[in-house]
């Protein structure tokens, strides 16, 4: 893999955390689990993975800021650079023994994501990208799908769990979209949903009320693979508002119109 020193550092940290997670995944029944809320669990494995990543990244770049799902935000001496990390995206899948989860690491520079890694350790798939250098899956260049007809397209989303207020809007989205496409998937890991759009496996993805660490890396993957990305509402920023819709060039506009109810 050819990349910058920062990207290589991110890949190394993701692999190291991934090895720790795979070890715990094999013993998932024995994990010590505590509840953060309805349907949203945190495990010892999750916290250990973030510790590994934070130690490696801040050890090498001690002046950078940090935003992690488990340890929150820390301002760095360098206010222009920040790591954005989800050590285990798809925690519920992980705790149920479902092999669909990932480590997500992004580097933000002056408010823009410039490097991204999403590592699916269970399948040994490393999705990575740098601004202006394309998106890659292991050693192969990624491109979004070339489909142009909605009826042939498969989309991904996240169906809200627990008592989330976005459930009615999502059900309305599905009622409008499903008759117009080939299918909708809900696999429970936003970082991988975005990575799969970049790889051409999905034709588009949308979701509301996400956190920056859920989508920061995936957004750059999609953009560098030739995809289009925006918030669901005009004028919003995906990383700020936590809503995102993305797709390939041919389907992005009709897909966005359906989701918006236009």
| Major beta-sheet overview | 8 strands, mixed
H/E element order? HEEHEEEHEEEEEEHEHEHEHEH
Binned strand content: 25-35%
**What is the CATH homology-level superfamily of the largest domain?**
Fructose-1,6-Bisphosphatase, subunit A, domain 1
* Count of separate DSSP helical elements: 8
Number of domains: 2
Compute the average pLDDT: 92
CATH top level class name of the largest domain: Alpha Beta
Using only C-alpha atoms, the radius of gyration works out to: 17 Å
Number of DSSP-assigned strands: 15
> Considering DSSP H and I runs of 4 or more, what fraction of the residues is helical?
25-40%
Low-confidence stretches: none
CATH architecture of the largest domain: 2-Layer Sandwich
Q: Could you say what the CATH topology of the largest domain is called?
A: Fructose-1,6-Bisphosphatase, Chain A, domain 1
Cα shape: globular
In spatial order, strands of the major sheet run: 4-3-5-6-7-8-9-10
Pfam family, one: Inositol_P
Binding site for Mg(2+): 69, 86, 88-89, 214
Catalytic activity: a myo-inositol phosphate + H2O = myo-inositol + phosphate
GO molecular function, one term: metal ion binding
């Amino acid at each position: 893999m050819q990349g910058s020193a920062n990207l290589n550092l991110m890949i190394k940290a993701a692999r190291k955390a991934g090895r720790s997670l795979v070890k715990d995944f094999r013993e998932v029944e024995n994990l010590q689990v505590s509840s953060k809320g309805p349907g949203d669990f945190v495990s010892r494995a999750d916290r250990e993975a973030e510790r590994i990543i934070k130690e490696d990244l801040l050890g090498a770049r001690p002046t950078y800021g940090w935003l992690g799902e488990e340890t929150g935000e820390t301002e760095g001496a360098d206010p222009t650079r920040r790591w954005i990390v989800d050590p285990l995206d798809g925690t519920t899948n992980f705790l149920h023994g479902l092999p669909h989860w990932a480590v997500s690491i992004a580097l933000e520079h002056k408010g823009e994501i410039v490097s991204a890694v999403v590592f699916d350790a269970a399948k040994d798939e490393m999705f990575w990208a740098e601004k202006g250098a394309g998106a890659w899956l292991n050693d192969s260049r990624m491109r979004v799908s070339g489909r142009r007809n909605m009826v042939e397209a498969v989309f991904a989303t996240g169906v809200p769990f627990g008592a989330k207020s976005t459930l009615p809007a999502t059900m309305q989205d599905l009622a409008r979209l499903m008759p117009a496409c080939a299918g909708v998937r809900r696999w429970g890991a936003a970082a991988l949903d975005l990575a799969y759009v970049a790889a051409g496996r999905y034709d588009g993805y949308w979701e509301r009320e996400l956190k920056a660490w859920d989508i920061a890396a995936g957004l750059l993957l999609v953009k560098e693979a030739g995809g289009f990305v925006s918030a669901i509402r005009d004028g919003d920023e995906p990383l700020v508002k936590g809503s995102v819709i993305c797709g390939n060039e041919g389907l992005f506009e009709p897909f966005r119109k359906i989701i918006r109810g236009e």
